[in-house]
Amino acid sequence: MADAPLSEFDLIARFFTGRDRGPGIVLGVGDDCTLLSPRRGQELAVSVDTMVCGTHFFPDQPAAAIGHKALAAAVSDLAAMGAEPLGALLALTLPKADEAWLAAFAQGMGALADRLRVPLIGGDTTRGPLAISVTVIGHLPAGAALRRSGAEPGNLVVVSGSLGGAFAGLQAEQQRRETGGEPPEAEDPLRERFFRPEPRIALGKALRGRTRTAIDISDGLLADLGHVCDASDCGATLQADSIPRDPLLAEWPAGSALAAALSGGDDYELLFAWPARQRGELRPLASALQLPLTVIGEFTREPGVRVLDEAGQPIALAGQGFDHFRAD
Amino acid sequence: MADAPLSEFDLIARFFTGRDRGPGIVLGVGDDCTLLSPRRGQELAVSVDTMVCGTHFFPDQPAAAIGHKALAAAVSDLAAMGAEPLGALLALTLPKADEAWLAAFAQGMGALADRLRVPLIGGDTTRGPLAISVTVIGHLPAGAALRRSGAEPGNLVVVSGSLGGAFAGLQAEQQRRETGGEPPEAEDPLRERFFRPEPRIALGKALRGRTRTAIDISDGLLADLGHVCDASDCGATLQADSIPRDPLLAEWPAGSALAAALSGGDDYELLFAWPARQRGELRPLASALQLPLTVIGEFTREPGVRVLDEAGQPIALAGQGFDHFRAD
Q1: Which of A8, A277, B205, B230 is the least buried, fewest Cβ under 10 Å from its Cβ?
Q2: What is the rounded distance in angstroms from the CA atom of residue A233 to the CA atom of residue A81?
Q3: B87, B118, B141 - which closes a domain
């Protein structure tokens, strides 16, 4: 019932070596706990995210992409609070020792960790069905966190980047598997949107002090906007034609493309509330961040989320999940 | 590829409700991250521990015991550093919605969390093979952490409680299963030592400032003492007859009982270094904590771990794992 001695330990140790240092880290990997020394006046933001083989990724998906996405999805929760990463802990459950898989997984996660400056400060390796649980710890000035609450009627609804690309990538990948097609090149942009989301840490940080309200779009625009409306005790009205659709959806039927952008999920863009009279500040902010920021509607006193077409008529929403894509 | 909407969410939410508050918790469950406000002058200790069905527990093990042990094993790492719990995050992967199982699991984890005052400050529920990953965050005065390093030749090797009981419980449970015996009563002491270890938080806290070196015995006495010796650049000599054996081993053959105490694992007692000239302070400390503290040997300049019999002769150690139990 105990863990077999895993040769993975060595590889994981190698993977963490030198990656467990950073500001505020008193003691890295190798003891019963990691020790952190928070800066005075800072609050800590903490979150955990699990990805399970077959539920969140394909068993034969490139291991580097799995490593990337497991860390990206967790770090995205820090971005949504306006926190900067202090470190991440990796709980990795593996069916067997597979050095090539582990090396690629570690490379994918390590490359993102290095680029985003997320020290890998702890972990646990166990034997079992493939799953990855990543805990992230971030910090931010006390009182500055972006929450789901705080949006006010009249505030603009703004999203970063474009939406629906991850869903387009997933659909393409599923179709390829059903038809037995060859895997595309490693850097295929269609798959990359699903395989390698980019957490918006710089945007989250920039939003601190400018708004109180943000969320990351992991469940889909409608679902996550719904969370904000619930927490903020308000509703929202969106303009369908203002919702930024991923270029990958360009050749999709209009209805399907809209549905993908509204409900596709896994995009890890940020949605935030923005005071209407500061609308003019969005463009320079987008410019500084080199990231599109698009006003897609506004928060309302009336509860619920509505999406209006070009004529101002409400579009019937079949649901906030995936099912309605099939009927398109 | 996304999570199906789980009815478990409701149950988990109920489980967390009211348990996500405590000193230093600014924002509990329900946003992208939990927010913590560390006290000035405190360091944070962080660790993650995963338990996988079939590897760490039996599929039909009582769910309450699984919930207890998942939290206990993680919190034990805080105890080993001398840290007090600030909170725990639960990443729960479940094959299906089973309300009765979840209620019992939540009850078992929740009862321990309440008793040890560990707020449950976050989590993630996903669909997949049963596994539980618990991240714990603790705090302690800066510089006061107990590490694996720092033991010096001449220091006494001390352990809390008794050893081998968890292994005895595991053996009994395995035998029962092989012979098709009826499950014992819920509170059977033999199983409880394996099912419900007790993290030694009060001891870890009391050791701060009195020693620099501690570890929890999760892998087994020899293995974990080996970790301390490696980190402290020293060795250790133990007296076999001084090692406190769990009363559950009373009727075992002497050799098997010693092997269980030396290598059984899963006891979650603490092992620590203690200055020889403060030996007299151990008894009042044990008395205050109502927990046996036993000197079992001393750290040495000579590397490696040796176990001596009553005649002072070294006992041949077949290994530090489980295999040699079978040849007894």
Answers
A1: A277
A2: 19
A3: B141
Task: Show which of residues 66-125 on chain B sit within 8 Å of chain A, judged by CB atoms.
Answer: 77-78, 80-81, 83, 87, 89-91, 93, 121-124
Taking the complete model, does pTM exceed 0.95, yes or no? no
- Among B78, B110, B141, the domain boundary falls at B141
Model pLDDT for residues A144-177, shown as the tens digit of each residue: 999 999 999 999 999 999 999 999 999 988 888 8
A128/B129 Cβ within 8 A: yes
Q: Which domain holds residue A276?
A: 156-325
Nearest Cβ partner for A215 among B27, B32, B46: B32
Distance CA B238, CA B51 (A): 31
Residues A245, A247, A252, A254, CA torsion sign: positive
User: Using the beta-carbon criterion (under 8 Å), do A142 and B266 form an inter-chain contact?
Assistant: no
Question: How far apart, in whole angstroms, are the C-alpha atoms of residue A147 and residue B31?
Answer: 7
The ipTM is: 0.91
- In a shared domain, residues B92 and B118: yes
| Chain A residue with Cα closest to B220 | A2
pLDDT tens per residue, range A90-127: 999 999 878 889 889 999 999 999 999 999 999 898 98
CB contact under 8 A, A47 and B122: yes
Q: Which residue, chain included where needed, has tokens 């939990």?
A: B34
Q: Which pLDDT value is given to residue B327? A: 31
The size of the A-B interface in CB pairs under 8 A is: 219
- Domain identity same for B172 and B120: no
Q: Are A121 and A89 in contact (CB under 8 A)?
A: yes
Is the predicted pLDDT of residue A128 greater than 90, yes or no? yes
